Amino acid sequence: MDALEKELIAAITSTRYYARRNYILGYLVAGVTVLSSIAAGLTVSLAIEPKELTAVLASLPAAMVAAATVFRFDQKSDWFWRKSKRMDSLLRSIRYEGIDLIAASKAFSQIEEDMEKDWVSFGTPGKTSN
C-alpha cells in the first residue's frame, strides 16, 4: 500500500466519521424538539410544577430549530457522504483498475477542490451538486 492509498483511506475514515456525527446530531435535534414539545404540553395539562420547568421545555423546540438552521447537520451529513463516496470510487480505481499514481493524486486533489465548493458554511444558503 503506497502513501497515497494510506492518505486516501485516512480521509475516507475521517469523512465517514463526520458524516455519521452530523447525521446523528440531526436526529438528536429533531428528537429533542419533538420530545420537549410533548413534555411541555404535558406539564401544562397536568399542572406539573415548577413553572420554570414548563418554560424550559417550551423554549427547547425554538432553540433546536435555531441550532438546526445554523448548523445544518443534515446538509453537512449529506456533503460528507457524497465526499466519502467519491473517495471510495477513487480508492477502487487505484486498487482494481490500475490507475497510476499521478492520475490518482490529481483525481484526489480534484475531489478536494470540487467538494470545497459545495461546503455548507455559516451564513450561506445550502448547496447541492446532485
Which short descriptors sum up this protein?
4 helices, 82% helix, 0% strand
What does this structure look like?
- The protein has 130 residues and is mainly α.
- It has one domain (3-118).
- The chain contains 4 helices and no strands.
- Helix 1 runs antiparallel to helix 2, helix 1 (3-45) runs antiparallel to helix 3 (73-96) and helix 3 (73-96) packs antiparallel against helix 4 (101-118).
- The radius of gyration is 21 Å and the shape is elongated.
- The model has no long low-confidence stretch (mean pLDDT 91).
Q: Could you estimate the helical fraction of the residues in percent?
A: over 70%
User: What composes the largest sheet?
Assistant: none
Q: Figure out the total of helices.
A: 4
Which structural class fits the helix and strand makeup? mainly alpha
Order of helices and strands: HHHH
**CA distance, first residue to last residue:** 32 Å
In short:
The chain is mainly α. Helices cover 82% and strands 0% of the residues.
SSE topology:
Elements lengths: L2 H43 L5 H21 L1 H24 L4 H18 L12
